[in-house]
Amino acid sequence: MHRSQEHLPARLWGVLAGLTLVWGFNWTAMKVAITDIEPFTFRTLCLGLGSGVLFAFLRASGQPLAIPRDQWPRLALIAFFNITCWNLLVVYGLTMLPSGRAAILAYTMPAWSIPLSVLLLGERATGRKLLGLALGMGGIALLVWDEFHRIQGAPLGALLVLCAAFTWAVGTVLQKKCPVRAPVAGLTAWLMLVGGVPIYVGALLFEDFGKLADLHLASALAVSYNVLLAFAWAHWAWIKLATSVSVTVFSLSMLMTPAVGVFSGILFLGERPGWLEYAALACVLGSLATVIVPKK
């Protein structure tokens, strides 16, 4: 049985860097898109087209797409938590919160995944992991504290995004507890397609696709960013990382993403950083170092 690594291998640094940037900047892209597009419709475009692009690439490059019959229940369960719940909860929460703050709340995922991995997977809570968690969550706490009055002003939005973080943690732990025996790329495409089914149905029942005819250029570009980068490529990268290292290491590695999300909002939405943002970034970088730098 393959044992998950307790630090991030050098060969995956580029994958992590790309995933961090793509998902970090995507919080701004999502905020732009949902000003024009209803939530179910937006996620239908992201998941339907994103999985379609990935399927087309895999077919063209001759990569396997088949999933063993006995693996479908596991795939559907993981897709429900990591795709269906995460995508709907995040996009509805984002309609009520600033993009950078929503990113911070969403990436409290390690606060859920590390205890779950200890309880359900038997992973060791080493001092190094606890230090990384403390640094990362400390950085997040600084920013949440700074925006606490905003969270109080949108309690439902905050609750939705925190629930999304929990479902993401559950799905990540399930990938280690009940791994799907399938190639990573093919598994990624099927997860997006299957997890999107309830969302496609919701869009057909509750929303009007005709409104897409009035889509502004900025929103169209935001959707394209989501389809090609945040979904087709980034979901492959996410599964590659999640299946290569321990849940704790993967979770802490992703803590850099909300920092990028915050500064993406600053860059594109006109927010201005203060000392709390810089202090939080320093904490998150310290957290990242605990899992990227191997022990001597």
Helix content: over 70%
Question: What's the gyration radius in Å?
Answer: 18 Å
The main sheet comes to:
none
Number of helical segments?
14
Low-confidence stretches: none
Count of individual domains: 1
The geometry reads as globular
Distance between the termini: 25 Å
From the helix content, strand content and strand pairing, which structural class follows? mainly alpha
* Rounded mean pLDDT score: 84
| Order of helix and strand elements from N to C terminus | HHHHHHHHHHHHHH
Number of strands: 0
Determine the strand fraction and express it as a percent band.
under 5%
Question: What's the gist of this structure?
Answer:
This protein is mainly alpha-helical and 296 residues long. The chain has one domain (10-60, 67-292).
Explained architecture:
- 75% of the residues lie in helices and 0% in strands.
- With 296 residues, the chain is an all-alpha fold.
- Helix 5 (109-121) packs parallel to helix 8.
- The mean pLDDT is 84.
